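Reopening: TetR family transcriptional regulator still failing for me.
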Amino acid sequence: MSEHRRPGRPQIADPDQIARIAATLFAERGYAAVSMDDIAERSGVSRRTLFRHFENKADLVWRDFFATYRRLAERLVDPATEPGMAGLRAAMRETLEVPGEEEEITRVRLRIIGASSEVFAAGVRGLGDMTEGLSRQVAKAEHIDVDSLEARAAGQAITGCILASAVWWASHSDEPIVEVLDRALASLERGIS
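Support: Ran it again with your exact input. Result attached.
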């Protein structure tokens, strides 16, 4: 049986734009008060198109966080990037320059992540991928196996440090996020080394 399609051009959806629109709606109404239908309507896409890109509202919140981590991960695997915390902190500085117009949207997303156990839980799988990459960064510097207890514990500590300090920044600081994260990572580095 074939699926009924409306005639005309297929909808073109920009997932980044949809995620920005969703964050704006969350800021206006609160996370719990916004439905996927609300997001589809405001974005000018069908519900089906929205669900093609995002499984749920939490995915809309995490999208930018993990897109930023993917850019960081690309820098970390670059042979020119120094291993260990020094390389991570330098790569983070290069990756995390948040344009001024995006800062408030970033704050909204991070506040939701910090306030909602449902949203936080939805990002756990991605945090595991992040921990793996950060464990590799530490393992390179310490010349240890990436699966060693030391590399895994350090990778998890760094993941937690990044997330906790980003969420803290969203509600407590007017500084650029890169400054807050760098300060938190420097503190962690003193404890790891």
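The longest helix spans residues 149-172. If you still see a failure, please send the error message rather than a screenshot.
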